[in-house]
Amino acid sequence: MSYYVIKRTLYGLVTAFGLVLLVFGLMKLIPGSVVSQLVDQSAGFDQKKLAEIEAFLGLDRPWYVQFGTWFRDFLMGDMGYSWRSRIAVSQLLGPRLFVTLELAGLATLISVIFIGIPNGLLAANYKSKWQDTAVRVFSLAALSVPVFWMGSMLILIFSVYFNWSPPLTWVSPTD
């Protein structure tokens, strides 16, 4: 069992690393320069000044050096600064991360307790009968629906039609 857990964890880490590398590569394929997008062209910046800014940001180095620097900084918790708000990205993500983890944990708990376990018991008790088939079809259909669409529909149903809660609000558990 522990071999299986270690194996799956390593597969997950390799997959996550590959995905990060793919996204980094796709960002490098976007035409144009990041610096030219950030700098107001009418401000009179010439190519020499743009090259200095690129050198300061490390954008003149090879892609693998840029990736290595970014990945090392990311692992250390330094995600850079937001160009729009001028504060650290980690400070922007911090408050939102707690809300995200709370919602994801609660959704997982509800889905396991109220959907997964009862459907699993039903399918196990009626193996190879119509109830088992219905549970399989329901599960496959639920997994096939995009999460963003399902979330939008649940907000619409429970907030707008049933008026059970105000839409898109979050209250801290301590309040």
Automatic annotation (TrEMBL):
GO cellular component: a single term: plasma membrane
Keywords: Cell membrane, Membrane, Transmembrane, Transmembrane helix, Transport
Compartment list: Cell membrane
TM segment ranges: 9-30, 103-125, 137-162
All copies of domain ABC transmembrane type-1, residue ranges: 116-163
Main subcellular location: membrane
Listed InterPro entries: MetI-like, MetI-like_sf
Gene Ontology molecular-function annotations: dipeptide transmembrane transporter activity
Pfam families registered for this protein in UniProt: BPD_transp_1
Entry membrane topology: Multi-pass membrane protein
Name this protein carries in UniProt: ABC transmembrane type-1 domain-containing protein
Top-level taxonomy: unclassified sequences, metagenomes, ecological metagenomes
